[in-house]
Write a sequence for this structure.
């Protein structure tokens, strides 16, 4: 139970029924992420501002207006074969000899937290703590074995830029391919094409096949495409060091601008210094479990203590 | 279902892009480019016609068109399924990094091969005209085998794509399998004698042969389609499609762990 929200009046707007949307809502405290605070039968949305409710049927439904991301008891179990079996011959032999053994381990277990809109959450942890697995789950690439996850907006993962690039394609063709993969529409990409090229500073190289690009050029193009829309949730793995010093400055400025506009950020890092300067809340993962969460000062102090 | 359609609409452009990519890249960096698609079946047709026409002492009229029809359909079957088989693993880089509906990959593979196949039908039109085959009303019936084979390739594609994630040697097994299927599809021989023999079932119950036979009925002979060869491959394809999709959907969340 959380004591802060008990004292807060819950603003209940939209008293009418949005057909089909009635559900039991478990509320979780917005301020500390613990909960459930109370359960209510609601046919309306809890809104702090006055605006239209999200349409029914979307994943946004269950999230409050102020929540960008909610992770509930998420666990990811990997099943590893003791020996790597990846062909039918070995599989059949092992199956007949009853030698198919697996060992299971949880890469993530019982992870629950909540990120409010505009909040910047740092994820701390040593190698193998489950940070990347968590990011993959949030980005939707990996489905959690248990638990649920709710996202309240477009997520742009700036993880490995240009992972979906086709080497035979020219830069221009890749803009459309990669853009399509991120879920943008053709018209939108056509409209923004000039802007993307201008930002990437590739100039005439845009019509050259990607295989002739340097890695910095690829990263620049990837960054320019991924950040052409302003995402609601941005996932950053370490601070980006894209391209040369000049472009790095430009990309950092673009990210800073997004920060200033109040987008939600998930930031993964080993560096406490970076997390401290960028985030306002943090969690620590250790061996797949979340061992602490709270404001950045407290948590980073804990983390410093732990890695000593 | 509603969310499925909404999701499909959202990623429609991606499907188009992926299909385009496969078609485009096939012809990039090759001097002949698209001409190759037309030249390849034409050359094999000439060789097969000479070899088997002489060897079997064929008096069949339009033997060249006979071979070409079988050859074109078989080529789509084999390249389409092979592309789909590899589609998930070939796009492993994307699957590991960005979320997109995964069924897009096998579907795009099947679609892009289909587009190449439809374009290569130009050869058939030319050769048929040269051999003096006049189109009849029954030519319209060709639409049925043409649609059926797309369904068949897509269905098998889903099944193979899923299996391929877990078993890497499937590619080689499927190569052998497609070759066996080729010999059972009566591409360069007339199956009448075989059909009457004890081994007739090998051809009769080969859905690819059904499609080829009906395509020939419509294009080469100007005859109505044969009932059994219409519904039999469709039923087989639908069964495989349902099985393939169920299998694919059950396993798709674990793909990323094996890639």
């Amino acid at each position: 139970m959380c004591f802060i929200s008990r004292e807060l009046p819950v603003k209940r707007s939209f008293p009418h029924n949005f057909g089909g949307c009635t559900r039991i809502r478990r509320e979780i405290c917005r301020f500390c992420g613990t909960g459930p605070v109370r359960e209510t039968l609601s046919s309306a949305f809890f809104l702090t501002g006055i605006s239209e409710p999200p349409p029914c049927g979307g994943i946004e439904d269950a999230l409050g207006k102020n929540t960008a991301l909610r992770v509930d008891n998420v666990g990811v179990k990997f099943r590893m074969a003791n020996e790597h079996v990846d062909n039918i011959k070995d599989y059949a032999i092992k199956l007949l000899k009853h030698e198919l053994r697996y060992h299971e381990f949880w890469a993530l277990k019982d992870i629950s937290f909540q990120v409010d809109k505009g909040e910047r959450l740092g994820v701390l942890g040593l190698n193998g703590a489950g940070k990347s697995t968590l990011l993959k789950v949030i980005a939707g690439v990996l489905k959690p074995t248990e638990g649920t996850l709710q996202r309240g907006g477009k997520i742009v993962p700036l993880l490995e830029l240009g992972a979906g690039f086709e080497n035979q394609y020219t830069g221009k063709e890749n803009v459309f391919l990669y853009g399509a993969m991120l879920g943008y529409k053709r018209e939108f990409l056509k409209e923004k094409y000039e802007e993307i090229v201008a930002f990437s500073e590739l100039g005439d190289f845009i019509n050259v096949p990607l295989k002739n690009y340097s890695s910095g050029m690829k990263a620049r193009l990837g960054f320019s495409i991924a950040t052409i829309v302003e995402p609601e949730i941005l996932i950053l793995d370490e601070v980006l060091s894209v391209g040369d010093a000049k472009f790095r400055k430009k990309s950092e400025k673009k990210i800073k601008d997004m920060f200033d506009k109040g987008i939600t950020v998930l930031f993964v890092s080993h560096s406490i210094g970076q997390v401290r300067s960028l985030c306002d809340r943090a969690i620590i993962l250790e061996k797949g479990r979340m061992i602490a969460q709270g404001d950045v000062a407290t948590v980073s102090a804990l983390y410093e203590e732990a890695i000593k | 279902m509603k969310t499925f359609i909404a999701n499909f609409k959202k990623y429609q452009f991606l499907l188009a892009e992926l299909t385009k990519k496969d078609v485009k890249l096939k012809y990039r960096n090759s001097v002949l480019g698209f001409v190759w698609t037309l030249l390849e079946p034409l050359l094999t047709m000439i060789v097969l016609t000479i070899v088997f026409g002489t060897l079997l002492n064929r008096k069949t009229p339009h033997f060249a068109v006979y071979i070409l029809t079988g050859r074109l359909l078989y080529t789509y079957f084999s390249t389409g399924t092979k592309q789909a088989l590899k589609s998930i693993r070939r796009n492993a880089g994307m699957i590991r990094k960005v979320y997109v509906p995964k069924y897009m990959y096998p579907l795009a593979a099947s679609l892009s091969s289909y587009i190449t196949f439809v374009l290569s039908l130009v050869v058939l039109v030319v050769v048929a005209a040269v051999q003096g085959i006049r189109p009849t009303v029954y030519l319209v019936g060709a639409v049925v085998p043409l649609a059926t084979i797309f369904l068949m390739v897509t269905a098998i594609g889903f099944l193979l794509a899923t299996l391929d994630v877990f078993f890497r040697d499937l590619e080689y097994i499927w190569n052998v399998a497609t070759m066996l299927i080729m010999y059972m599809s009566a591409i360069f021989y007339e199956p009448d004698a075989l059909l009457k023999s004890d081994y007739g079932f090998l051809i009769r119950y080969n859905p690819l042969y059904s499609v080829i036979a009906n395509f020939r009925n419509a294009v080469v002979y100007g005859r109505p389609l044969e009932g059994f060869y219409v519904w039999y491959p469709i039923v087989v394809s639908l069964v495989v499609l349902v099985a393939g999709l169920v299998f694919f959907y059950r396993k798709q969340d674990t793909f990323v762990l094996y890639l």
About this structure: Chain A is about 30% helix and 25% strand. The two ends of chain A are 33 Å apart (CA to CA).
